Amino acid sequence: MEEEHNKEMEELIEHHKIMEEDHLCPPEPPSKYQHLSQEDLIKLLIQRGTEDEEKVGRLQQLESCVQDLEGYVNQLLADYDVSWPFNGSRSDSKGPVCAIHQNFSVCYAWEQVFEEARVENPSQYEAELVFVPSHLCTTDVIGFRCKSISSRRAAISDLIWTIGFLTSCLTAHVLQVLKNCRGPKQAEGMNGATPPPKTELQVKIDAIFDDIQMLIPNAKFTHFNRSTSGRNSKAFIVNPRKQYCVGEDFVVQLDMYDYLDKRKTYGGDFIRPRLFSPDLGASVSGTVEDFKNGSYHVHFPLYWAGKAKVSTLLFHPSEGVAALWRARHASEGVLGFQGKFEKHGKEAISKCGFKLYKEQGRELCEYIDPVYEEALYCFKALNFTCESLNEMRGYDLSIPHITAAERQLFESSNIAVEIPQTFEAITVTRCDNSTITPKPKCQTGMDSPFPSGYFFNDIWNPLYCNMTVYTIGEDFTKCLQGKNLFLIGDSTLRQYMMHFTEGIKIVKYFRYHEGGWSNWAMALEAMNTEKDIYVSYKRHGFPLEHPSFYYFKEDMYTSRQIDQRGGGKDTIFVITMGQHFRQFPLKIFIKRALNIRRAVERLFLRSPDTKVIIKSENTRELFSPVEMQGDFHGYIQYLILRDVFQGINVGFVDAWDMTVASANVVVHPSGHAFASILSLTFSFACP
Questions:
Q1: Which of 6, 184, 423, 661 has its CA at a distance of 20 to 30 angstroms from the CA of residue 685?
Q2: Domain 470-511+524-685, CATH among 3.40.630.30, 3.40.50.1110, 3.40.50.2000, 3.40.50.300
């Protein structure tokens, strides 16, 4: 029986080898397996328990190739405003299918997509000519023949099966699309000429991006069982003792194992550690030291006496981190945008985005800000002017860039897994009578370390300054009286506005009669005429993840909003960004952060006594869609924001550190976490 199984396995592996020869049609799989999909066949081989890692790896590579092809096709179709589910199954597929190889292309489609394509003799399956968009290739039509397919499998879905293995791994999809084609589509502004030299801003963007990329592990995914398992990994104390002293560095070692219980030999896992004492309302984040060999030291500073517990969550394995990084930069983003043009009571909807590609017969509207090197494009709606763009909405493109095999890494049961410990809670005592050195009051310009503080009695204690605790309306009124407060960012700052108007009620909305999160994207104003307080909330400008159309005319980049204000001693800016940038390549976020810093520098030249507070983004729901909203993307952006705003006279509210320490898992924190975020913000605003 074992010999028979081995023979079957060899047949299947031979069938799934990457086609490197000239023949275009791979052989049929063994008849008893013809009803299985390629994914099921691969799973079957793995379940048979082969220990030949090379063969298993080959199969996984093949599956990855097919997923790469699928992602390319999906992106291609998205460029034509076509959305359809592709599941790779052999069931009848009712949607367009494309295969790309070095010197041929096949596109089967509905009549509504591209041009009509038909198979006249499905029983023989000798394919007819297929139409391809003329701007992609030098000819409008490319022929393809595939003769040796049995009548039993003569369906469109069988072509999916066939073409899946006509591709070698597409590590550079766009550069190798058809030898007789002009190559990848040219983005607007790219006319094939020698690109101009990089601006100072672009050089800085590239430098920051390169620094961050150095942190990303080169952890190639081969099989789920070879990825890091939080449940199989181990946490133990380095140099354990019966008790520890306040002020010491408490160290926990993590040894990581895969799902086969084998030691990992490389690092790069995304780990979220914290030390906490629930009875004391105390908690602090830990610092992870990666030895790049599968072991880590997590350093916890001991700031309070009492019983303390450790939590070390494997948020994502290194293979997941590498996949998320690759996926984030595999396209222009996982959100698409539609603009609504309006004129004389009529309206039209058209595609918009950071980059659009010229199409025959379609004119582009360019919304370019040369000062900040920002650009937004929309296809011009017929019979409308570019100036008539009035509303915008974002929508999920539903184009995953993580392969089917990798998706198991991001199932909810495999996110934020607690690493088992070999120890119970530790005991911390005050071992000497040393006095605590007094800290100065919080003020702008202070450096914020990491960890930047800790909770005790559910109140945040910054390590570098003495925070004023704001609790009741009178506390905030005293700070804000006679001042203009400009909140610029996303809904985590709209939460400030809601607290002032609907919570402690120190100001009243102006011409807004709703409440809660209704119309959360709209700009808001609130005032207290008696105390001379003015509060404004505005979005940070494009992009915004909002599925409904919102008024777009009032959108301005944060940097321009700052440039339009005179500033002064009675002006406070609180600025955040992040949650709505996780869906796009990282350089978009870096550019925006650098532009905000440059605008703040200009503000300080004309009004050095203006108060500016930068609030980092915070953690959010554990099981948010990882490609669109995942916390790994947020963490990377947090690192960038810390770096960009070093050495400038701003207050830095480390909301990331606070929400990690407090184990927050909602995008809008509540309770003591939100209270401390507010307190630190206005400790900087009113020292």
A1: 661
A2: 3.40.50.1110
